[in-house]
Write a structure and sequence with these properties.
With about 130 residues, the chain is α+β, with helices and mostly antiparallel strands. The protein has a single domain, classed as PH-domain like (Roll), CATH 2.30.29. About 35% of the residues lie in helices and about 30% in strands. The protein contains 4 helices and 7 strands. The protein has a 4-stranded antiparallel sheet. Strand 3 and strand 4 form a beta hairpin. It is elongated and about 55 Å long.
Length: about 130
């Protein structure tokens, strides 16, 4: 469904910092971008981070309980956004996908639909107690 990296300049503040530092901040932002990779399939969300040492976090779609689309004004101005996933996974109860340079609302809908399909396929039912 999606594979890529966060945007190089994720918000308007990153653009301003890059201009003020005459491009030096761009090196830091480039390293940060190159050390994060997102892969979303119809079964799981995988986030790989790190330069020398790698950390790979994953959540199976059927474990996702809630989604948040986060579009702060600084990111909306440059066309990026974030998705926060809440899950039943003990090791990764919250997974934040920052600085996505795709249509975040469309990606959210595709993740939500794939989650429902995967839950039905596995026979998973979530009961909400209040």
């Amino acid at each position: 469904m999606f594979e890529g990296r966060p945007a190089l300049l994720q918000n308007i503040w990153a653009w301003l910092i890059t201009i003020v530092t005459v491009g030096l901040a761009l090196v830091v932002f480039w390293i940060r971008q190159r050390t994060t990779h997102y892969r979303i399939t119809n079964q799981r969300v995988v986030v790989e981070k790190g330069f020398f040492s790698k950390t790979i976090e994953q959540i199976d779609l059927y474990r996702i309980n809630d989604y948040t689309v986060d579009l702060p004004i600084g990111q909306r101005l440059v066309g990026t956004g974030n998705i926060v996933l809440e899950s039943m996974d003990r090791s990764t109860p919250h997974l934040r996908l920052d600085g996505l340079s795709t249509d975040v609302r469309d990606l959210y809908e595709r993740i939500r639909q794939a989650t429902e399909i995967d839950k039905r396929r596995r026979g998973v039912r979530v009961v909400d107690y209040e």
